[in-house]
TrEMBL record:
Protein name: Diaminopimelate epimerase
Family: Belongs to the diaminopimelate epimerase family.
Keyword terms, alphabetized: Amino-acid biosynthesis, Cytoplasm, Isomerase, Lysine biosynthesis
Organism the protein comes from: Tetragenococcus halophilus subsp. halophilus
Quaternary structure (record): Homodimer.
Location relative to the cell: Cytoplasm
Function: Catalyzes the stereoinversion of LL-2,6-diaminopimelate (L,L-DAP) to meso-diaminopimelate (meso-DAP), a precursor of L-lysine and an essential component of the bacterial peptidoglycan.
GO biological process: lysine biosynthetic process via diaminopimelate
Top-level taxonomy: Bacteria, Bacillati, Bacillota, Bacilli, Lactobacillales
Site keyed Could be important to modulate the pK values of the two catalytic cysteine residues: positions: H151, E203
SUPFAM superfamilies: Diaminopimelate epimerase-like (SSF54506)
GO MF terms, alphabetically ordered: diaminopimelate epimerase activity
Length: 274
């Protein structure tokens, strides 16, 4: 079976994007497809697979998002920007669109050929200054949307001086914290000399640090604004994959960033079984 696809990336989060309005694959088939084609070196390889599908609510289309291990996530900020461009360039949506996600509908705008702006779901849960057992620091917890995308946000001033390997054991413990029903993505942040944010995110499903996480960037910006640790309405976050911008406007939060179409064509993997 040949599967038409786009390979896209936003802030170095890379995705395989397919139009399931045409393919009509079941959820079980999408999970199977994801596990096979996201494998690095064995197939196309990517952080995740996104399937554009028919909406169930008042939206232009529905985004189904699967991590590389086949688990379905509520939504993905960088993924939304990429699938919005896919929808625009394939004639499915116009320059302003509403996208149905598992975490609720989100609005997205095409700013230019590559740059897209997405309004991220409002938090449904927030708990600040939680004590994590075995440490002397406090963590903040935010869920974006309902059901929410779970994120822990941790101020880690030493972030500029250490390697990711140094904090990976701690990230794994936080990711699987039994106080959280569904675990969480883990965001470590610090400020640089320009009062801009350095951010590193350990993601569920990938089970490692990734080059960027859009909802992690927004969750971190939300915590910083709520705790009055930053005053700017435009917040610059430096991630391993580049730079993300988060805008607060009338208490709504928007993720802004570039998209990149890396390649498009057909997945012709001879080992593929769906």
């Amino acid at each position: 079976m040949e599967v038409p696809f786009y390979k896209m990336q936003g802030a170095a989060n890379d995705f395989i994007v397919i139009n399931n309005m045409k393919l009509r694959l079941s959820d079980e088939q999408l999970v199977s497809l994801t596990k096979q084609v996201c494998r690095q070196r064995f197939s196309v390889g990517s952080d995740a697979l996104m399937a554009l599908d028919f909406p169930q609510a008042n939206a232009d289309f529905r985004m189904k998002f699967y991590n590389a291990d086949g688990t379905e996530a509520e939504m993905c900020g960088n993924g939304v920007r990429c699938i919005a461009r896919f929808a625009y360039e394939t004639g499915i949506a116009k320059q302003q669109m509403t996208i149905e996600t598992k975490a609720g509908n989100v609005d997205c705008w095409r700013l230019d050929k590559r740059q897209y702006r997405v309004q991220i779901n409002e938090p449904s849960v927030e708990n600040f200054d939680l004590s994590f057992p075995g440490t002397d620091f406090l963590v903040d917890y935010v869920e974006l949307g309902d059901p929410g995308v779970p994120h822990l946000v941790i101020n880690y001033p030493q972030l500029k001086e250490i390697t990711l390997a140094d904090i990976k054991p701690l990230a794994k413990k936080l990711r699987l914290w039994d106080a959280l029903d569904k675990g969480a993505n883990v965001n470590f942040y610090a400020f640089d000399q320009n009062n801009e944010v350095i951010l590193r995110t350990f993601e569920r499903g990938v089970e490692d640090f990734t080059l960027a996480c859009g909802t992690g960037a927004v969750s971190t910006a939300y915590v910083l604004k709520k705790k009055q640790l930053i005053k700017n309405d435009f917040i610059t976050l430096h991630v391993l994959g580049g730079v993300l911008e988060v805008e607060e406007n009338k208490q709504h939060f928007y993720l802004i960033g570039d998209t990149n179409i890396v390649t498009k064509g057909y997945i012709c993997d001879e080992d593929l079984v769906i």
